[in-house]
Write a structure and sequence with these properties.
Pathway: Pyrimidine metabolism; CTP biosynthesis via de novo pathway; CTP from UDP: step 2/2
Helix content: 25-40%
Structural class: alpha/beta
Order of helices and strands: EHEHEHEHEEEHEEHEEEH
Enzyme class: ligase
InterPro entries: Class_I_gatase-like, CTP_synthase, GATASE
Largest sheet: 9 strands, mixed
Strand order of the largest sheet: 2-1-3-4-12-11-10-7-8
Distance between the termini: 11 Å
Number of helices: 7
Protein name: CTP synthase (glutamine hydrolyzing)
Number of strands: 12
Catalytic activity: UTP + L-glutamine + ATP + H2O = CTP + L-glutamate + ADP + phosphate + 2 H(+)
Radius of gyration: 16 Å
Length: 231
Amino acid sequence: MKIGIVGDFSPEYPSQIATNNALRHTLGKLGISIEFEWIATATITKQLEAIKRTYNGFWIGPGYPDSIDGVLSIIQFARENDIPLLGTCGGFQYIIMEYAKHKLMLEHAAHEERDPDASQLIISKLACSLVGQKGEVIIRKPSKTFDIYKTETTNEQFRCSYGLSSEYEKQIHDSGLKIVGTDPVGNPRIIEIPEHKFFIGTLFVPQLNSTVDSTHCIIDSFITTVKGRLI
C-alpha cells in the first residue's frame, strides 16, 4: 500500500514539507496505514513499469520537476487507468498539460515558465502572482469537488505564478477536464474529471492548510479513495 508523490523533493521548499506533513495528519486522523514516498522525476521514464506496479495512487506535488516527460507519463497512466490522482500547485499545471497533449492531441502544448516562445502556451503566467497569497475559491456544483467540500466557497493558500491560459479554458473544460473551482472573477482554480475515481487538481496548495487537529478535506478524500481501491 503505497502512494507516490511525483516531484523532486527539497527540504528547503515549504510546500513539499507541508505535503509530507499533511499526509501524516490525514493518515493519523483516519487510522489508515499507507506508505508514501517521493518519486524523483528524472527516474520515471526508465522505471515506469515498476512504478505502475508499485503505487496505488499518485500525488503530483508542487515544485519545478527535473523531467516533465516523467511527470506527464504518470498523469497519463493514472488518467487512463482510473488510478486516484491529486495534483496541487505545479501538479494542477501538469495535469492540464498532459490532458492537452495526450487527450486533445495538442502536440506543441507547453508551459510558459519553461518554453515562453512556444506556439501553444497551455500554461501561462498569471496577471498577478499568487505566491504567498490566500484567496477565495468558488466551487461549482454539481461536482466531485463540491461533494468533498460540501460548501460553495473556501479560502486557500497559493504559491504559484502560472495557471491555465484563458485561450484554452473552454476547450479544456468542454472536452472533459472540468473547471469546477474559480476565483471570484472566474479564473480557474480547481479541475477534475467527474467520472474518474479521483482525478483532481488544485492551483492552490491545500496541504498548507492542514494541521494535526484540522486536516484538509481534499487530502482526506484522496486517501480514502486510495484505501477503497485497495479493498
